[in-house]
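Sharing a chain and its predicted structure for anyone who wants a worked example. Both blocks are below, sequence first, tokens second.
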Amino acid sequence: MTGRCFPRIVVGGVSSGAGKTVLSIGLMHGFKERGLSVAPFKVGPDFIDPMFHRASTQRPSRNLDSFLMNRRDILESFARGCRSADIAVVEGVMGLFDSIDATSEVGSTAEVAKILSAPVILSVNVAKTARSAAAVVRGFRDFDSELNLAGVVLNSVGSKRHKDKVTEAVEQLSGVEVLGALPKTDDLHLPERHLGLVPAHELKSDFQALTRVVEEYVDIDRIIEIAGSAGPMDISESEPQTCERTKAKVGVVFDNAFRFYYAESLKQIEARAELVYIDALHDKKLPRVDSLYIGGGFPEVYASSLEKNTGFRSSVYDFCAAGGRVYGECGGLMYLGESISTDAGEFEMTGFLPLETEMQKRYVGMGYVINQAICNSLLAGKGDIIRGHVFHHSQARLTGKADFAFKTLRGRGIDGARDGMMKKNVLAGYMHVHPLSCPNILSALTENQEPGR
């Protein structure tokens, strides 16, 4: 991609809930309908929106996060994700300028857009407003002079008269082009639950109704022109960091209950070792693997089915007890514990780690975290600083003596001040890590070793 003007856009929003995901899915589909191969991306530490991207494009969606990743890693991950594609769509996170704190731009959609030198399309909810929308757009246009705000798409438009009035106000008073106006309709609604949108694979939908609305009310051809106006990017289409491929078999639990994995993680594990996908809901026992990775997801939703698969749970316990190398994140932590309690009752899990988890009505942990290693572990050496993120509604309760790998400097861990529970060769915590900010996890999972059972 060195010196190439690769077509790309970033879809930002005035706030969360402004319609970024709907617009992004609609644009991806519209581009595909015009014969383009679409490379999808998501700003921030989100797992669910990339599932919608993949369902829409049949390509993995990579996360670009300026808190977890440095500039070079963002550019190179973007280049890898764009290989063999014709155009890229980057869905933003929260509001365009929202970041890790009140004043910096770290972690914001705007910062990633500037790193990518990409034009931004802003989604603006204009329900119950008209001329005031122009003030909002003008404020976003002027807030950061380095950002290329190339156009806006109005959302929740009430009528043609409303659309015409807001369009005239925005274009004449802010000087920003209006590229479409989406009406209020149930066809643009995506169902939600406690961690955000219901994952795409559970909806059994091809999003045809949604994409038809976007096709009808948004000037997709004009947005393709804007994407093509993006300047050159002086980056190389590099592979993940070169390393010798091992003979290790890395088991990844990937099913309806556990699906929260960064695309970059799976790609880089696959580049280093044999990747074995495992289904904790239906597999009778754990296959022969050298290490096991249990990511996040919705184990609480599938707790009854996980409990009923006693043979698999027992084989995971035996693998852990025999010294097998296991890494669990959030949902993986809950599964490795003794039980999960929900409104439907209490359900037994593997029982290897001394903790129980109980679902709460509100989130218990959400946002970026910073942990410091207080001992050597799979993820880090003593004293190392690790950046990650958490988002969960479960409350953990220790049921016995526990050793921890990390002191939590920012955010909340398993017992508030600590995260990363350790037992034998098992490490599990609420923190999710990205392989480009915590590369040790890749070597820990993929290095050759004797199987743990």
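Comments welcome. The longest helix spans residues 160-174.
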